[in-house]
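Need residues for this backbone.
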């Protein structure tokens, strides 16, 4: 499975969480690093207002919003040691929502614990996020 979309992120944050369960925002949210709790993944991205406009931009015209692209790849074995973030996320319903308060996509994923890898380009003020998702394997 692969899904890709582009949207403005008005709060500069991409979230991933179980569609049918309540979630807790990560406690270390806000330091521009990818943060997670057992039930939510938070990825800082380019804020929609982070767009340069010329000094002579007309006041009556809204400036364009900066946008970010999200690519989600699922169902493949995940490599080790190559992602900016590599962790677990609980998804008991098997329905993972990815997006923000204005626009989210919901994907069917394996029920239970997931292994999630995330890479951002560029790492600071990312305008492209790649998220890889697979069922989490129990440690040997």
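Answer:
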């Amino acid at each position: 499975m692969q899904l890709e979309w582009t949207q403005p992120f008005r709060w500069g944050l991409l979230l991933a969480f179980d569609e049918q369960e309540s979630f807790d925002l990560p406690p270390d949210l806000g330091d521009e690093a990818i943060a997670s709790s057992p039930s939510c993944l938070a990825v800082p991205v380019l804020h929609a207002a982070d767009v340069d406009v010329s000094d002579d931009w007309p006041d009556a015209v809204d400036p364009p919003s900066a946008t970010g692209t999200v690519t989600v790849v699922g169902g493949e074995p995940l490599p080790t040691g190559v992602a900016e973030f590599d962790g677990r996320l609980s998804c008991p319903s098997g329905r993972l929502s990815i997006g923000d308060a204005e626009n989210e996509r919901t994907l069917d994923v394996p029920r239970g614990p997931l292994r999630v890898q995330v890479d951002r380009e560029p790492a600071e003020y990312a305008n492209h996020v790649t998220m890889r998702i697979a069922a989490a394997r129990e440690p040997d």
